[in-house]
Amino acid sequence: MGEVRTHVTIRNAGDEAMRRRGLLPEDQVRRVTVEAIVDTGAVRSCIPVDLMEQLGLETLRHINAQMANGQVDSVPLTEAAYIDILGRIATESFLVLGGEVLLGQTALESTDLLVDCNRQRVITNPDHPNSAIIRIR
């Protein structure tokens, strides 16, 4: 299987809440659109520190994260941001590490999106093509 990438838009959730309340103009909501690596082996999504700063996200706390090589490091966890993937929105707190955006299982599960390994792309769940269905049991 090759590397799967997809375009995503990430928005500062605090800015978006202020916009909805009429306290911040739309053009002042901090957002970025980037190409992200999709990693079904990663539980949480990750962003690099420069993107965290660009979005104006604060660190909530540090958590221990186990890397692919087995090493455990304490890494920053951001406050909430919205991530738009194929028109579906997830609320994520990102781990801050690496040099590019990485989408993990929590973002895929909460948007009901799947990875099509043969075509190396993210797709909507064929069982729920029009909207996400989230299992709560």
Description:
- The protein has 137 residues and is of the alpha+beta class.
- It has 3 helices and 9 strands, in the order βαββαββββαββ.
- Strands 1, 2, 3, 4, 5, 6 and 7 form a 7-stranded mixed sheet that branches. A two-stranded antiparallel ribbon has the order 8-9.
- A hairpin with a 4-residue loop joins β8 (113-116) and β9.
- The longest helix is centred in the N-terminal third of the chain and has 8 residues, at 13-20.
Task: Give structural attributes.
7-stranded mixed beta sheet; 3 helices; 137 residues; alpha+beta; globular; two-stranded antiparallel sheet
Q: How would you describe the shape?
A: globular
Distance between the amino and carboxyl termini: 31 Å
Low-pLDDT runs of 5+ residues are: none
Give the count of helical stretches: 3
Q: Indicate the proportion of strand residues.
A: 35-45%
Element order: H for helix, E for strand: EHEEHEEEEHEE
Radius of gyration, in Å, reads 15 Å
Category from helices, strands and their pairing: alpha+beta
- Total count of strands: 9
Return the average pLDDT rounded to an integer.
93
The largest β sheet comes out as: 7 strands, mixed
Amount of helix: 10-25%
Question: Outline of this structure?
Answer:
With 137 residues, this protein is an alpha+beta fold.
Spell out the blueprint of helices and strands.
Elements: E1 5-12, H1 13-20, E2 31-38, E3 46-47, H2 49-55, E4 59-66, E5 72-85, E6 88-96, E7 102-103, H3 105-111, E8 113-116, E9 121-124
Parallel strand pairs: 2-7, 3-6
Antiparallel strand pairs: 1-2, 1-5, 4-5, 5-6, 8-9
